Amino acid sequence: xxxxxxxxxxxxxxxxxxxxxxxxxxxxxxxxxxxxxxxxxxxxxxxxxxxxxxxxxxxxxxxxxxxxxxxxxxxxxxxxxxxxxxxxxxxxxxxxxxxxxxxxxxxxxxxxxxxxxxxxxxxxxxxxxxxxxxxxxxxxxxxxxxxxxxxxxxxxxxxxxxxxxxxxxxxxxxxxxxx
Length: 179
What we know:
two-stranded antiparallel sheet; 6 helices; 6 strands; 30% helix; globular; disordered C terminus; GTP binding; GTP-binding; nucleotide-binding; Small_GTP-bd; Ras-domain-containing protein
């Protein structure tokens, strides 16, 4: 969010609210209102009231923790129960910096779930290494219908899931400007 990584960051308790302004190509500006909801089961009852008016649901998991991935289905069901098909679902696998030796969730697992739940796109990120974080927010902004380049393209993107290339982008390093 703030182009920094905090080693001492504590997990979200309840709900956290953030604003992010992004400047897109073609002189388009978007202000994202981000509601960071706790992933713990005890906070699950709070989620529906925050989902109600959302356009996008970013559902995150830890690529080194299969249990976090397996729990995505129930969170996505909650989103769809509240919003139906009138919400863009994005899957985000975090901690890609930890490498394949600690990986418990494969890219194939993520792609299969993306197809199963109809997620708009899926991406792996590393907040620690600042990998694909800026791209994630950019893709979220671009997926909103009012920021599509034209209605035909927006409709095409809406009906065709997209998987973002998760290979390392050397142009986006920890020292680069982000979020």
